[in-house]
Amino acid sequence: METTEHGSMDLEHAGHPGIYPPSGQHNDNEDRGKKAEPAGRKKVDPNSSEQARKSQQHIPDDIDSWKELLRQHIGLDKSFEVQVREMVFGGKRVALLFLSVFAKDVSLMEILKRLSYIDPDSNLDHDAMHSFLEQYLTAVQIQKTTSFPRMIDDVLAGNTAFYVDGEAAALIIDAKSFPGRNPEQPSLEKVVRGSQDGFTETLLVNVALIRRRLRDPNLRFEILKVGRRTQTDVCIGYIDDIANNELVESIRDKIKAIDVDGIPLADKQLEEMTVSSSWSPFPLVRYTERPDVVAAQLLDGSVTVIVDTSPSAILLPTTYFDLVQHAEENRQNPFMGTYMRWVRYLGIMASLFLMPLWFLFNDRQALRPEWLWFIGADKVGQIPLILQFLIAEVGVDLLRLAAVHTPAPLVTAMTLLSAILIGDIAVKSGLFINEVILYMSVSAIGMFATPSYELGLANRIIRLALLLAVFFFHEIGFVVVTTFVFLFLTFERSFNAPYLWPFLPFNAAALRNILFRQPLTNNKKRLSLYRTKKNRKQPV
To answer: Any transmembrane segments, and where (predicted)?
Structure first.
């Protein structure tokens, strides 16, 4: 399937007005970063493409010179997909520059068909470019540019450049189509009832899915470019009369400040460059593949960041409690939604503390409460308990990785074979005890029940840290690690938003909404976390 891209051409270069400095000017940052070359060392000059993007500013008015520049800087006659179609219309030599892998044949054929009607005896010598633009080119979106780097970037983005011999300019025609897929149900955020469409790898499709749900004239989508070589489209979405201006400006400034070769891994690399550059295991952004979740968050005052080629959107700012919410809770009535929410909370808590607490009570039975008399193992097994837990943890990770890399028809058979057969043999052979397999299974289920995949992995690391702390330092280790993690989360921030809000700092009304799924009629105000321009969502 092909997805047609339209509507982004006029904003493509709004994000980096200074990428190509005018001729004769120097980049201060580059000058400051230069160091004197040691004597005897050969100085490495930038390649011709990099040099051209900085020095060559204007499109030549001779078609042969124009094509020579294309050979040097974009690989004309070397790279098979770089195509130039030369023709003569109205006595003028014209050329279409495009990438065959992105060009939309139907649109270009209509343009050529229209141009073929021009009388060969027509006199287009006077301002021919204006005549083609105003009278003959039948494309919806066309822009004129005199910048050679701008023309190259637009062509690499899938557009077509229309060049006229004798004119030091080109017309950029939006006639492109990108390979894509239809919106499908997100694999990580499935719901029993509700929309079954999710984001795809095409930016404009994702924006359209949000626009379909938010027909608000104040909804804004800003396009920025990130990466010197990849020139990746990054979209910032927000509702202008709701979102906090400081939050939007902070996100925009951080994205504009990114100076790297590219972000081919899309949103994850963008996150590391803007939000979480530390070694913290906890995610500081919320990923979602559901356009209805993005629409709901935008109405609350959140800001979304969508990266082209990524099937997920980033929601900012993010708290720990945002990461444990799921769309299914809002698809049920308030009572059932609250029940499902509490079951999920219990599963997350079990994935964190069940195994370390069992290990602690088994090792220090004096600490075990009377009502937990059944806690403990009658036999230890041939391997020490701590090694059994660690091996089981690694085994679950291997099982998860194997499921990812196994063809879909074989996943079920592989998981059953690994989980049942190997576990049963390990217990019967005396290497493992039943309690380890039981508590490891419950903890793994709790991890998989965590809506945020990244948070589930972070909780796994904390569980391992608690297990090792209990093994080496017993109850003191458990208390110290738990306290350290709590303090760490207390001081963690996502775009200046407290990570444990509304628990710390305490907000009773917001915490009530976290613990209980409130009816829609009770949600009259937006969360104070976002500091929105309009606090009220519906009349009193």
So the answer is: 342-361, 410-431, 437-457, 464-487, 499-516
Identify the H or E element spanning 224: strand 219-226
Angle at 390 between CA 384 and CA 391, to 5 degrees: 85
Q: Provide the pLDDT confidence category of residue 42 given band limits of 50, 70 and 90.
A: very low
CB distance 289 to 312 below 8 Å: yes
Alpha helices in 301-333 (DSSP H): 327-330
Residue 112's SS3 state is helix
Cβ neighbour number for residue 99 with a 10 Å cutoff: 18
Q: What whole-number distance in Å separates Cα of residue 529 and Cα of residue 510? A: 9
pLDDT tens digits, 58-92: 999 899 999 999 999 999 999 999 999 998 888 88
Residues in CB range of 18: below 8 A, 6 or more apart: none
- Could you tell me the sign of the dihedral formed by the alpha carbons of 395, 396, 401, 403, in that order? positive
Which residues are 224's β-sheet partners? 234
282 Cβ contact partners less than 8 Å away, ≥ 6 residues apart: 320, 455, 458, 489, 492, 499
Q: Which residue has the tokens 């080496």?
A: 472
Residue 42 tokens read as 């050969």
Q: In terms of Cα–Cα distance, which of 215, 230, 197 is closest to 309?
A: 230
